Amino acid sequence: MKTVLITGFEPFGGEQVNPSWEVVSRLDNAIIAGCRVVARQLPCVFGESLTVLNAAIDALSPSLVLAVGQAGGRADITVERVAINVDDARIPDNRGRQPVDEPIVAQGPAAWFSSLPIKAMVAAMREAGVPASVSQTAGTFVCNHVMYGLLHKLSARSEVKGGFVHIPYLPEQAAAHPGAPSMAAATVRQALEIAITTALQVENDIAVTGGATH
Question: Has 152 been annotated as catalytic?
């Protein structure tokens, strides 16, 4: 059985929970589209997050990797198109590191694009009644760091597809941020299941027909 690796982050920035891990952890050992899902938590730390992620990829040899992170203030599920080769932290990470204008990979490409069928994923979520959109920026904090590092690693493994999805606050978090949008954990879980299913189906169709993903 093929494996899907899905990751979420530990809490950061003074939050008591991180919606990405709260939801992702519930998908551990789930079977989606005939594949076993394995969930791993990443530290919200520059460098260490990629060490944990890369170790999980090496150990599991997944066919699909979906990294998930919190984007407080966003109102919908946002599927990221691109990660840029820069760490530029507005706040310190969970180890107190706050890099400014530092490359993630020295001499690496300026950017890496998601290898997931991002528009098909968004369309499938919307069809199911889940607010979703394509995002053109993953920021410059640890989420972008992980997305870039993930795609850089997978560039040598063309058979493995990967990308990043940002999700809103949970309602209990938004209660402490008056006016901030939120999304229920059950809805986020539904969205991630749809995202995984769509990515696997599109990849299977590509394998059969030799077509393109976009």
Answer: no
